[in-house]
Amino acid sequence: MIAASVLVVLLAGGSIGVYLERGRLTDILVATSADAGLKLEYIEVYGRTHTPKDVLLAASELTLGEPMLSISLRDLHARLSTIGWIEDIAIEREMPSTIRLLLTERMPMALLQTVNGHRVIDASGTIITGADPSAFSHLTVVAGKQAAGKVAPILNILRTEPELYAEVWAVTFQSERRWDVHLRSGIRVRLPESDPRTAWSRLAMIDHTKRITDRDLAVIDMRVPDQMIVEPNIPVRGKGSKT
Asked: Is the peptide bond before 153 cis (omega within 30 degrees of 0)?
């Protein structure tokens, strides 16, 4: 009803719509709507877990008291989409005074090893700008060329064996084809390029009965189907050392 009254006031002057430039008419509409009470008073945010409040508000560039009709939802969406934590966002304008932000945040999946240190990444391999790696030290470290975009499937496989997965601290993508899994004990598990799920499940079954991961091993090679090759953890002696 308020908006309708504003339009009546603006258009009642006969030929005002003809003589005024469109931009000027828009300015008058915005100003008059604000005088009628259509001002931003409330910013409601839903789905915010990791995005810092101050970062969100600064990026929005919203100001309490500004005319509701002066807020471009398209521009607001573009500004908020630059925030690293935000994967998607829906924006609603509810008259007379509310802007509602519905966030879909990126979910941290792993720590990507880079030349500049660790970076938090999501399931797609996207680096979450602004995320503090030290706050996510519990996540699995991932390394290797093209590893970031491939890590979600292998982590999903490893999680199918929770007891064994609890011993995993890192995975490395080898030759852009297959994965090595690094256990906290120092053992490297070499998984096959084809059907790593079966190999991982077989290792979990063997470990459940024989506790092979508790042994002093350097490598457990699961790349050959139905076989498991182990390499003992023998320290490399320096040249000239006595045996």
From this structure: no
